[in-house]
Amino acid sequence: MKQSEILRVIDSLQLTATKKVATPGDWKAGDKCMVVPSLFNDEAKKMFLDMTAVELPSGKQYVRMIPVDSQVRM
Question: Is 44 inside any structural domain?
Fold first, then answer.
């Protein structure tokens, strides 16, 4: 395994352990991450100002993405 991959995984683990977010499989530092589905919309909107819901064929809005910036620091 390359050193850059190990660092990427550590960054992801640190971020998801301390914030209410999840990272996609190909996530890299600086990419958008997902608000955990267990967090209600009202609470998520208060925590993450730049949150956007992904439109899904089902119409449900449980996939919510946020940029990793000043709102979610690693």
Answer: yes
